[in-house]
Every structure is written in structure tokens, then in C-alpha cells.
Amino acid sequence: MIADSLLASGLNRLFAQSPGACDLLAKQAGRTLALDMVFFRAQLQVENGGTLHAAPEMPAEATIFLPPDVLARLPIQGKAALSVLQSEGDAELISAFNDALQQMDLNAEAELSRVFGPIVGFRLAEAGRAFGDWAKQATEDTVRAIAEYAVEETPMLASRVEVERFKLEVAQLRDDWARLEARLNQLASASPVTTK
Questions:
Q1: pTM of the predicted model, to two decimals?
Q2: Is the pLDDT reported for residue 171 higher than 60?
Q3: Are residues 118 and 93 located together in one domain of the fold?
Q4: What is the number of domains present in the chain?
């Protein structure tokens, strides 16, 4: 119940800072939405003004599933982090909530500055961006290293040059076979078969 209330108040604050977000939700007043975050499930009801409040006793008409890492990716990727969300239930309610999320202005630095002060907020946001860049580069480097290892060190995979060479050799073998077959047919038809 406390987590539901905290989530509702956090979303309300973000929606209040985003023009039009509450208006989109207001059309769904009285309806209940669940946010399933693997470790806990928050039940939220939309109020008349488009704000949310905790409603754990109400059955949810729609559920949005949030992967555990989506909150960690929000400061780095912004709204793009929300593109992986899956949902089930009432399509109209899900669409309204998604549209409200898309209206949000996710400025992590401003939020961190408000909580921790401008200098610490800037440093934390900068650290988050640096970590995101590092994680992306580390992932790309790891994938590249695995591919190199698979091609060069242990021949589990063939390089493009080897594949092209193999295709040329197969084509050459096919042509040689066709010529040999034609020559054998020619020799068979040229020499008369004698019987005793």
C-alpha cells in the first residue's frame, strides 16, 4: 500500500509537469490500472482530474508490465526506455496511460537537482550518462570480441572471405562436374557398343 501511494504520487508529480498528460488520463476517470514490476504490483485508480491514487483493493482493468531494469534506464534513455513495456487488458486505458507517459518530460538532471541540489544533481546525471555510454560501449566491445573469437581463434564460424571462397569452389566443382558429365555422355554416344 505504501509503495502504491509512493508510485502514484511520483507519477502525479511527473504528469503535473507535463502539459496534457493529466487531461489524457482524466478521460479514464474511475478506472483501475496495475503496474506489475516483478517484485511488487501497484494498483492505481484514475481520479477525475487525471491524477492517480493507490487502489490495491480494486480489480485492475489493465496491467502494464515493467521489467526490473526499466527504471534504471529511464535517466539514460528517457522515454525510449518505455518502448519495451508489455501490457494486457483494456486497450483504451492502456493507450491513455501510454499517451500520458509519452507526454512526460523526463529530465533526470532537473529531478536530481531538485532533490539533491544543483551541483550534486548535475554530477549524478553526468555519472548516469557516463555509465550509460560505458555500458553501451562495453556491450558492443563484448559482442565484437566474441565474434572475433568465434571466427579467428576457434573456427566455429567462418569469416566472410572464407564463405565467399567456399561458394566459388562449390560453383567451380559444379561446373567441372557438368563438363565431365557432358563429356561422358558424348563418349558414350560416339563409341558403338559391340556385342558378341
A1: 0.51
A2: yes
A3: no
A4: 3
